Fold ABC transporter ATP-binding protein.
Amino acid sequence: MLLEIEGLNSHYGRIHALKSASLTVREGELVALVGANGAGKTTLLRTLSGVHPASSGRITFDGCDITRMKASRRVAEGVVQVPEGRQLFGPQSVEDNLRLGAYRRGSGKPDDDIDRLYEMFPVLKVKRDQPAGTLSGGQQQIVALGRALMAKPRLLLLDEPSMGLAPLLVAEIFDAVQRLKREGTTILLVEQNAHAALAIADRGYVIETGEIVLSDSGAALLSNERVRQAYLGL
Ligand code: ATP
């Protein structure tokens, strides 16, 4: 097991945003966490990456208890998040944005990694010298994914990569996420777009008002009556 979250609680003042959540991710798996707006998906990711403190519970990453570890150390350990809303440096070129991803890593050969990224996502190579801010939303999301990959994640956390994108671009992003998985990246994908996320996930969890209420294989959740009614509009 690469990641094991057990009985995790998280608060914003008196708001109990995450209620005894438990979730696991194995090496090489693509796991989706789906739920409505405000269900607590982002809170789970923020608590996992260390930017928001856990009230109680335990997070174990590769056998180490990281529950109280500083966010920056978790990144160094390989827990890397692509934030919601991408947060690129708009005036900087695509390639500069990608290189910034290697900054925390400190070692290795960024040039080789950039070449590999250009192979995986040719659009990045085409646009390498353009200011990132001039790219379309979908292309910017791919830059954000690429930047996170430059940090050599052992666990990649994706927060709503399809947010604000037109349907065609959503398909492109989920295709990119699948490609990452095929290349061996372990991924925890947080999405409101339950259908697209569960369709590519090995396993999924459903979160409602801070509580994980269902977990199963992606395929089983897609055909689950409760999921179909509440999240797929079927
Ligand atoms: P979204 O898809 O909108 O990001 P979400 O499932 O990620 O939704 P969270 O953002 O984790 O949900 O929010 C969970 C709960 O915590 C909500 O009730 C929200 O109002 C509350 N919350 C989130 N951030 C804060 C904050 N900074 N201060 C107070 N309450 C917050």
Q: What stands out?
A: The chain has a mean pLDDT of 91. The first strand starts at residue 3 and ends at 12. DSSP finds ten helices and ten strands in the chain.
